[in-house]
């Protein structure tokens, strides 16, 4: 069993999950708590990690997989910040750099979906694929793409939840809830967007309710868009909304119809659930921490 230990942080807009781990199958301790203000939540995170080192021993690095948007350019003066987020009170919050200063450790820092995508590519449903995409559909919608083992970054990180879609013919008048774009994918198909229309979660609606047709149609449009751009080996769909019974099958059927037989791969092999289950985010933190140690130790 490896003696090198890592701190893992899955920082979500609703809850934080923290862990101490040596490997994906060797997680020593975890804790979770509600996401409150930055001072409260980041403070509680730092204190728990400090205390955990007394219980488990010193850590080699910390990996933070966080909700965003984030500043990921290590040359920027605000590297490690959560930037223009829709999470009230969290815009322009120092997180990654502050963690490094307070703990005196290397910090790997990326989006929660990029972290989960790396973990799924390394140990889960995307293992062995040259390209895979992880998308979470829950309180928000976000996605990360892994190409040859590396997360896709450009000027910043991908924002797949904000792609624009055609409107479903039975959903023309809903304006969408995205504070920036109105009826982008997140504004139409996220958990809050579903509740804004129908008052409850998708899983609480009868199986013959029109919401199932509408939401699966939007998510299938997303799948076909990703296939058009990347033709990934798999598109992994996680998050609370995707736990709705029958939704994955509906998405596969509609994506196949919308694709018109053009794309490669069987829908049941390309459109899949997370192989790591609800551990994907936390193990994303582990992957980021491990990669940070590799960078530090590279001559």
What does this structure look like?
This protein is α/β, with parallel strands linked by helices. Helices cover 36% and strands 21% of the residues. The strands form three sheets. The chain has a five-stranded mixed sheet with strand order 3-2-1-4-7.
Outline the secondary-structure elements.
Elements: E1 6-11, E2 15-23, E3 26-34, H1 38-56, E4 61-66, E5 81-82, E6 93-94, H2 96-103, E7 107-111, H3 112-123, E8 131-137, E9 141-147, E10 150-151, H4 185-189, H5 191-198, H6 210-230, E11 234-238, H7 247-259, H8 267-270, E12 271-272, H9 280-297
Parallel strand pairs: 1-4, 4-7, 8-11, 11-12
Antiparallel strand pairs: 1-2, 2-3, 5-6, 8-9, 9-10
Helix pairs in contact: 3-9, 6-7
Keywords:
12 strands, 299 residues, 5-stranded mixed β-sheet, 9 helices, single chain, 36% helix
Number of strands: 12
* Distinct helical segment count: 9
- Average predicted local confidence, pLDDT: 94
Radius of gyration: 19 Å
The arrangement of helices and strands along the chain is: EEEHEEEHEHEEEHHHEHHEH
Query: How is the main sheet built?
Result: 5 strands, mixed
The chain-level structural class is: alpha/beta
What spatial order of strands do you see in the largest sheet?
Answer: 3-2-1-4-7
Q: Approximately what portion of the residues adopt beta-strand conformation?
A: 15-25%
Rounded to the nearest angstrom, the distance between the terminal CA atoms is 26 Å
* Helix residue percentage: 25-40%
Task: Give a short summary of the structure.
The chain is α/β, with parallel strands linked by helices. It contains 9 helices and 12 strands. The strands form 3 sheets. Strands 3-2-1-4-7 form a 5-stranded mixed sheet. A 5-stranded mixed sheet has the order 10-9-8-11-12, sandwiched between helices. The chain has a two-stranded antiparallel ribbon with strand order 5-6.
């Amino acid at each position: 069993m490896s003696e090198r230990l890592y701190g893992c942080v899955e920082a979500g807009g609703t809850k934080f999950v923290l862990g101490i781990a040596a490997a994906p199958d060797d997680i020593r301790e975890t804790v979770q708590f509600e996401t409150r203000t930055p001072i409260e939540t980041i403070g509680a995170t730092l204190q728990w990690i400090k205390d955990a080192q007394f219980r488990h021993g010193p850590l080699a690095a910390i990996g933070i997989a966080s909700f965003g948007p984030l500043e990921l350019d290590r040359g920027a003066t605000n590297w490690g910040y959560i930037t223009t987020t829709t999470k009230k009170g969290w815009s322009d919050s120092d997180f990654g750099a502050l963690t490094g200063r307070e703990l005196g450790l290397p910090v790997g820092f990326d989006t929660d979906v990029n972290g989960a995508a790396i973990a799924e590519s390394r140990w889960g449903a995307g293992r062995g694929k040259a390209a895979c995409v992880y998308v979470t559909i829950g309180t928000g919608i976000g996605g990360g793409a892994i190409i040859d083992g590396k997360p896709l970054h450009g000027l910043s990180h991908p924002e797949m939840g904000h792609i624009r879609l055609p409107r479903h013919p039975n959903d023309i008048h809903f304006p969408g809830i995205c504070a920036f774009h109105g009826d982008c994918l997140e504004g139409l198909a996220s958990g809050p967007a579903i509740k804004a229309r129908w008052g409850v979660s998708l899983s609480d609606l009868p199986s013959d309710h029109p919401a199932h047709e509408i939401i699966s149609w939007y998510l299938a449009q997303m799948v076909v868009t990703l296939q058009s751009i990347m033709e990934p080996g798999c598109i992994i769909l996680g998050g609370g909304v995707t736990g709705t019974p029958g939704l994955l099958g509906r998405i596969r059927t509609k994506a196949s119809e919308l694709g018109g037989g053009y794309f490669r791969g069987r829908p049941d092999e390309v459109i899949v659930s997370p192989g790591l289950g609800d551990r994907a985010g936390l193990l994303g933190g582990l992957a980021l921490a491990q990669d940070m140690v590799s960078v530090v130790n590279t001559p």
